[in-house]
Amino acid sequence: MTTRISRDALAARIAADIPEGSYVNLGIGAPTLVANFLPADQEIILHTENGLLGMGPAPAADAVDPDLINAGKQAVTALEGAAYFHHADSFGMMRGGHLDVCVLGAFQVSQHGDLANWSTGAPGAIPAVGGAMDLAIGARSVYVMTDLLTRTGEPKIVAACTYPLTGVRCVTRVYTDHAVLDVTPDGLAVRETFGDTTVAWLAEVTGLTLLDATGTDASEVA
Amino acid sequence: MTTRISRDALAARIAADIPEGSYVNLGIGAPTLVANFLPADQEIILHTENGLLGMGPAPAADAVDPDLINAGKQAVTALEGAAYFHHADSFGMMRGGHLDVCVLGAFQVSQHGDLANWSTGAPGAIPAVGGAMDLAIGARSVYVMTDLLTRTGEPKIVAACTYPLTGVRCVTRVYTDHAVLDVTPDGLAVRETFGDTTVAWLAEVTGLTLLDATGTDASEVA
Amino acid sequence: MIDKTVPDTARAVAGIADGSTVLVGGFGRAGQPVELIDALIAQGARDLTIVSNNAGNGDVGLAALLAKGRVRKMICSFPRQHDSWVFDRLYRAGEVELELVPQGNLAERIRAAGAGIGAFYSPTGVGTQLAEGKETRTIDGRDYVLEHPIRADVALVSALAGDRWGNLVYRETARNFGPVMATAATTTVVQVDRIVPLGSLDPEAVATPGIFVDRVVAVGERRWLDAGAFVGGVDVDGNPLAATAADAPEGAHR
Amino acid sequence: MIDKTVPDTARAVAGIADGSTVLVGGFGRAGQPVELIDALIAQGARDLTIVSNNAGNGDVGLAALLAKGRVRKMICSFPRQHDSWVFDRLYRAGEVELELVPQGNLAERIRAAGAGIGAFYSPTGVGTQLAEGKETRTIDGRDYVLEHPIRADVALVSALAGDRWGNLVYRETARNFGPVMATAATTTVVQVDRIVPLGSLDPEAVATPGIFVDRVVAVGERRWLDAGAFVGGVDVDGNPLAATAADAPEGAHR
């Protein structure tokens, strides 16, 4: 096993790629951590699909307002400049390509950018999709935040997803605890590795052909 | 020629058929006169498709507000209880069947309830349709207010429209200066005649087979 | 005079027939018309098809209606939550049917019903299980799936304030599905915290014009909002925010 | 800091290319972005496709743009008005192309572009000339015509007030096409009477959230509103309300 960065470090890494003025949706779970690392001196506008642009941080415990929540049903606040709207308008915003970035979790991402993050298809599991499919196809840049490997050591970046798909060829970039990979027309390109992680190791552990885009030249590795 | 009632009398006749609580759109031109005869002690809510429910009467000359107009681009007012909305919402209201009544003018109405009111198809004429097609298919009851005959004596109630259609089988009832006719699955039924107008005369002048629904029995006349 | 207000929730839900399709507003418990649902439980209608984003939280509102066995089918986007134990049990026992719809398609299908759209092509869900059996089409190089309107017999909506014409304003993210659901039902029933005099709502800020509303009932402060922990949410690890824990499946996406 | 405000209308319309498709808000002159159109005339873009409900009134705004020969094609619902003499002349001379769209389909097609809908089935226009050549389908016993999105390079919109994030509120029926057009263009440019500080617009009353807006320019009081007769309207006999008469064809329907 090579270097893994912490979930907070990964959230900070993602935050660093989001320019000022972006409209961003952070999926529930780990992606919400990205908000903690957005620079305080820049304005980045957060969208929550249950009808709010200009979402602010969690309120103090004694200021919780049950009518003001995010997609994860956590209490939030609204910034000056916020706007409320109904669900059809909110999803029109997403589907219409108006969000610059969304950050989603994943069970699997394929080398072509297919995303599986809503169902493991396990027998007896109760399916639930929420807004994942709309986000996956809606945002201009779809960033995935995930561990490279499952707890049992299986790669989550795969040749083809075996779990039910959330969206087809929709992922722009995958941020993992070992490396950042771009989905390109020619396949996955390793953009950045963390610590002693190498492109060769990533290719070996995933079993995929990966492009090396870590230098100035992109060259194919086995 | 038999009895003709005046345009104001016809507007009053139509107004009498609109129950309290109705949501009503009055097309531009003569149908706007209907508003003058709605009972002052009843609430009937007027819709104008350019984004207002709860439209009130024209303002005083010195209180004209260019931002507050009706579909005919005339200055209007807004009542207490009014609401503004954008065009997609306004036409969703119409198309979705939420208006109880609209009153439209006509070039021709067919015996099956087809309406032609937007174009005479004359060479060189500049076509313009506005909201007529949406209103024609949208309101629950589509009332037509029209003279029975053109200025040159041609019937405007016809076997089949020769002018370009506004809507197919969309008219509920036709209010003319001589009689009121319902569109039924079996054809046109004369519901009411004015003065010395007879069903037989209406059938003769239109050349149509008309049902007589003026009495308690509906019986076919030639 | 038009007066759509009714004096109590029992009269607000009167006449809802067995077998009805009912749109129920809310996202989690924000905007959930709990007082109307309680009245519907007392009213007794059964064999219902419920359209709502979630399938109930804890033991109140929609969860209570489910627990009474009144619901034949749920159409929703996110039934499984850490506190959806009522639905979970019924579903696993085969006692409730589920139609799962991506959230945006759910909202747009309801809007389509209210706006008289016959069907529409959506890019959401293309190539997934949730588009199986549905017509697809490529338009300008992009793939879409054909989605049909969801219309209902009744909509139950919660808003902040309303007037006797049925004009409504909402509060913050409790607005969510209210304005679209209000347009898509034969009978739209709304609970509000308070009824206000005609003319006191800003006509520029009315989110649901009264044309869509049939009955309005004031329920006062919604006490259940304060009646315990903040339910429905999960922390970054998927564990419930409330003390009433159940395990949240890994990777749950709203 | 996000600041979408620009200091003058020239900078607001900078970069609009020849051949662009431009959505222009307004219904008659209510909500017509006259100051932005004036700037567009000065800017010089030509060969434009203009999407707007009407085709200009009198000699100002959209009519002036037409008179300069900058418009190749109009997509609108109601070009012919008693004071549309500029368009009338160009159309009769074959100098401008016209695509006539029923008003509700126009609004919904623009909304569809902004909301990512690939196409939709509308009941409006079925069986008429305006549906000729379009696909039709019977759904649940009703006939519909397939309508496609109208998207644009630029939208020019007039609102009452906006903030530096681009949030907008409108005024009365001048709202009309503004909120839908703002969603459907690559670049949305808005003129407002005044720019207000962030946080001063009621978040419940914002009709266009800033996400849809790229540039906002303050134009102050719109003086042309007071600059003469009330244009565009006709009386019950179809005669113009203004003194600047032209004959209105009988039976004109908005």
List its traits.
heterotetramer; A: alpha/beta; Glutaconate Coenzyme A-transferase; 11-stranded mixed beta sheet; 3-stranded mixed beta sheet; 4 helices; 15% helix; C: 254 residues; alpha/beta; 8-stranded mixed beta sheet; 3-stranded antiparallel beta sheet
If you had to describe this structure to a student in words, what would you say it looks like?
The complex is a heterotetramer, with 2 copies of chain A (222 residues) and 2 copies of chain C (254 residues). Chain A is an alpha/beta fold. Chain A is 15% helix and 27% strand. Chain A has one domain: Glutaconate Coenzyme A-transferase (3-Layer(aba) Sandwich), CATH 3.40.1080. In chain A, the strands form 2 sheets. An 11-stranded mixed beta sheet of chain A has the order 4-3-2-1-5-8-10-11-12-13-14, sandwiched between helices. In chain A, strands 7-6-9 form a 3-stranded mixed beta sheet, with no helix packed on it. Chain A starts with 6 loop residues before the first helix and ends with a strand. Chain C folds into 2 domains: 180 residues, Glutaconate Coenzyme A-transferase (3-Layer(aba) Sandwich), CATH 3.40.1080.10; 30 residues, no CATH class. In chain C, helix 2 links the parallel strand 1 and strand 2. The termini of chain C are far apart. The chains are: A alpha/beta (222), C alpha/beta (254). Chains A and C meet through helix 2 and helix 3 of A and helix 4, helix 5 and helix 6 of C.
